[in-house]
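tool_call: predict_structure(chain=1)
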Amino acid sequence: MFDPHSVASQQYSILALKIQHWMHLTNAKTLMVTSASGEEGKSVTAVNLSLALASTLEGKVLLIDGDLRLPQVQERLGLKAEKGFGDVISRPDVDVRAHISKVGNLDVLTGGTLQGNPAGLLASHRTREVLAKLREDYQLIVLDSPPIVPIADGHIIAGLSDGVLFVVRARVTRPELFQRGVESLGAANVIGVVLNDVELAATPYAYAYQYYQKHYLGRS
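tool_result:
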């Protein structure tokens, strides 16, 4: 978002193209982004991927913060902590469209105020009703989900999504946690894995990235 020509931004653009290809093949409209545990970069990935998709898709893209226990999207995007997804699904009289913010081409529905029973709310008929209405308005909905292993919320959101993108953080995510997270979701629902926080200089592709920075961006 802050450095659109950086190597990282270009990688998100490539990821966005892959997601578009998946959408074309499957007619999918909802994508969940999650990880095995916390501090693995799922919200950063959800935000940057959504921004990249919003700049390339013909239709509208909506990012929903589905983490009703520890919402991160509003902080990442510098939005005010107002009513959001949790408020909408807990109260039938709340109009979802009234609480959608805009960041560039991207529409955003923050997590909103903290709710007492997140898992119960996410599993409710009201949540399915809200998402069904939003599917009519958007070409793609990206759901930033809580981590999979410790709580049930992410499993509920996975059941509401057409596909799951799993985020793994280099040098941080433990292999056994990653394996447990994928197995608990079911491999058929996981469309891919994003390796986050890679030290580019240590990869076999370091020269390619350095060439891009030097000759295309004028950076050392």
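agent: The first strand starts at residue 30 and ends at 35. Proceeding to next step.
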